[in-house]
Amino acid sequence: MTTVDDMRSAQQILAEANVIAVVGASRDPMKPSHTVPLQMLRHGWRIIPVNPFVDEIFGVRTVPSLAAIDGPVDMVNVFRPARDAVEVVRQAVAIKAPAVWLQSGIVSAEARRIAEEAGIDYVEDRCLAVERASGQLSKLA
C-alpha cells in the first residue's frame, strides 16, 4: 500500500501526466468543464473527453465511460458533483489510472478513501488549469 509520503504532489502528478481522461467534459464553451480541458489540450496534454451524450468535444472524439478508453491514462480529471466522485474513483481504480484529480469545489472523503486504499494519487478541490499556470507547465516542445 502507498503511504502519504509516497504520494506525488499536485504539480508532480500534472508534470508527469501525458494522457488525461476528463469525466464530465462539456461542449458548452462557458463552462469550466470545457475551458479547462481545452487549455490543457492547447498546452500539449492528450485529452480524452468522457461524456456519453455527445460524440465530440473540442474536436476530440468522446468516450461514454472510463471503461471504454482504449489504452492507459495517466490521470482521471473529474468535473462531476461530489456525490458522483465515489463511482468515478471506483472506475478510475478499475482501469488502473495512477491518479485522480477532482476539480475546484469537489470534495469527497469516501472517494479519497477509495483512492488511498488503491494506492493511487488523489487531488481534490484544485483546478488543473490553475496548477498548470502556476507551475508554468506545458507539454509543448
From TrEMBL:
Pfam families: CoA_binding_2 (PF13380). The lineage of its organism: Bacteria, Bacillati, Actinomycetota, Actinomycetes, Micromonosporales. Gene3D superfamilies: NAD(P)-binding Rossmann-like Domain (3.40.50.720). InterPro entries: CoA-bd, NAD(P)-bd_dom_sf. Keywords: Ligase. Residues 14-106 form the CoA-binding domain. It comes from the Bacteria. This is Succinyl-CoA ligase subunit alpha. One of its GO terms (molecular function) is ligase activity. SMART domains: CoA_binding.
